[in-house]
Amino acid sequence: PATASTASTAAATGPQGHFQARVSPTNGSTVGVGMPVSIAFDHPVTDERAVEAAVQVTSSSGQRAVGHWFGPSRLDFRPQHYWKAGSDITVTLRTAGVEGAPGRTGTQDETVRFHVGRSQVSTVDARTKTMTVVRNGKVVNTLPVSAGAAATPTYDGQMVISQKLPVTRMDGATVGFTGANGKAAYDIPDVPHALRLSSSGTFLHGNYWAARSAFGAVNTSHGCIGLRDVEGGGDPSTPAAWFYDHSLVGDVVIVKNSGGGTIDPANGLSDWNMPWQTWVQDS
Fold first, then answer.
1. Disulfide check for 147: which of 44, 76, 121, 154 has CB 3.0–4.6 Å away?
2. Is position 115 annotated as part of the catalytic site?
3. Is 224 tagged catalytic?
4. Residue 176: is its pLDDT beyond 80?
């Protein structure tokens, strides 16, 4: 469980003449090995060098974290390889008095600390329709899945769980899936065990509406990855419940053989899809 840090994790809308930053993950969090430090600014930054110099990210493992800008309002930090399990990360934000854009200065002087838990990297093979869960270097489970259909494939690449939702509504119209009549291609109000993998709507979630025989046999979704579940998500023995209960925000989910193309590094927390040389070239 996470506890909110001070101003850095508050909804950030600073007064005229100032800018504020929101740091993720939050102070006191325990996260997976793939969790980048992601800093969102409430106003566009034009002096990226000055603002980046006011942020320091250090790890107890000694890994070097480097910053990369995804546009003027988002600065992420990550090491070359996933964080080492069990390490502690410290983010110092010293933007007070730093001019991030003409006439707009920072106000913050604070520290955010979080812990990296055990390593868990899961690989979804859309061809074999299975997900292999590797924890601390050992396979702990192999689960049958149903990924994106041929016409609506799941993204390939390294994705990171950014949000855990016990239940959520999934409305196709919000992510561009509508029928000829303009109505949502699907609207499911109670999708259980939902783990967000992208900002564009990719989830790994429980699925109670598909036949049990579909999992491990056929890809049927609009791009999400489905695990067998029950309506209401109340059965802890289902694959979806097991994976949800054994996942942290920051865990890595790799998808391969989907045919959907590699996810953009800026889509969600997909930073790891950018080659290291590209990541560091503007630092």
1. 154
2. no
3. yes
4. no
